[in-house]
Automatic annotation (TrEMBL):
Residues 267-286 have a biased composition (Polar residues). This is CN hydrolase domain-containing protein. InterPro entries: C-N_Hydrolase, C-N_Hydrolase_sf, Nta1. SUPFAM superfamilies: Carbon-nitrogen hydrolase. One of its GO terms (molecular function) is protein-N-terminal asparagine amidohydrolase activity. Residues 10-345 form the CN hydrolase domain. It comes from Panaeolus cyanescens.
Length: 345
């Protein structure tokens, strides 16, 4: 008779805030202040957004060239983001992850030739008469993960670069999955645009779903996304960005789909409507046959150079037998603070 795994108590924290571009030390001081009420031993992993302390959008939304981002690039392990995360991890006795702009080594830069590229014309980008820029790969849009002893255990580079990264960043070589002690177990890290399709030919129902498929294939228990995701600008008087929440959920379809196509995938996540209680409970299926994937999205909030971020950091529970994602909780669009979710997995 197979043994029954005992339920685990998993505590995941997100820090949603509005950093000021280029003000690294003041942004770290703000983050430290937001975290000062977290008690040691009260959380298993604490997440900060993409490029958490540097900010991301400068010079009309895109870093114009490598020289614009270069002053903000950080060395792995010794940069301000790494130093802060290592200190916080030791103080709280938990894992800490945060996004940052990584400085490439001189040896790595030597093999990368500058080239002129044309930036994609997509809705989020201010269209210019000439979208050509000189691409010099001097850094990477990265994320560090520190263990409770304050040791670096993972440095992940964003795989699917967004237009804001193209002028300066080197893409990573693939998504990162690693095994940690319970209750985290197998986790996968992603950064913002990693969730988007890498192909120009895709559909909501059939994908491709690169990051979610990777998580499924690698039997991920916890998928963590560190984002700097822009607001959808839909229903701006509503405190949560439901359009963005629904899109995030739709891009995770392999983790929750039961294989039955639905006409309106945007209604696949619990959106606060009257039918919310109809969502099947994840506990109704067998964990052995249909393991749960917990998805955590840590997004930034606020405005930067005329661009508004979605906030709405969220936690989902996903099982393929359920046929729809289950939204457990989310923060508000403009909320700054720490949210710790305590769930049983």
């Amino acid at each position: 008779m197979p043994s029954i795994r005992q339920p685990l108590n998993l505590r995941i924290g997100v820090v949603q805030f509005a950093p000021r571009i280029g003000h690294v030390q003041s942004n770290i001081a703000k983050a430290r202040d937001l975290c000062k009420r977290i008690q040691r031993g009260s959380v298993d992993v604490l997440c900060f957004p993409e490029m958490a302390f540097t900010g991301k959008y400068k010079h009309r939304y895109v870093f114009e060239n490598a020289s614009a981002i270069s002053p903000h690039l950080e060395h792995p392990t010794t940069g301000p983001t790494s130093q802060f995360c290592a200190e916080l991890a030791k103080n709280l006795g938990c894992y800490v992850t945060a996004g940052y702009p990584e400085k490439l080594s001189e040896e790595e830069i030597k093999g990368l030739e500058p080239e002129v590229i044309t930036l994609p014309s997509i809705s989020e980008v201010e269209k210019k008469p000439n979208n050509s820029v000189l691409r010099e790969q001097v850094g990477a849009n990265s994320a560090v993960l520190y263990n409770p002893e304050g040791e670096l255990i993972c440095n992940y580079r964003k795989t699917n670069l967004f237009v804001t990264d193209l002028s300066w960043a080197k893409a990573g070589t693939g998504f990162k999955t690693l095994s940690l002690p319970p209750p985290l177990r197998t986790i996968t890290l992603g950064i913002c645009n990693d969730l988007n399709p890498q192909s120009s030919i895709w559909s909501v129902l059939k994908g491709p779903f690169e990051l979610s498929s990777h998580a499924l294939e690698n039997k991920t228990n916890v998928l963590i996304l560190l984002n700097a995701w822009l607001d959808s600008k839909k229903d701006e008087d509503v405190e949560h960005d439901w359009s963005t929440l629904n899109y995030w959920a739709s891009r995770m379809r392999p983790l929750w789909s039961d294989g039955k196509e639905r006409e309106d995938p945007e209604n696949s996540s619990n959106n606060g409507s009257d039918d919310q209680e109809e969502t099947p409970s994840p506990q109704e299926s067998s964990p052995a046959d249909d393991p749960e994937v917990v998805v955590v999205v840590c997004n930034r909030t606020g405005e930067e150079n005329g661009k508004t971020f979605a906030g709405t950091s969220a936690i989902f529970s996903m099982r393929r037998s359920v046929g729809r994602p289950k939204l457990l909780d989310m923060m508000e669009r403009d909320e700054e603070g720490v949210r710790i979710w305590n769930i049983t997995v």
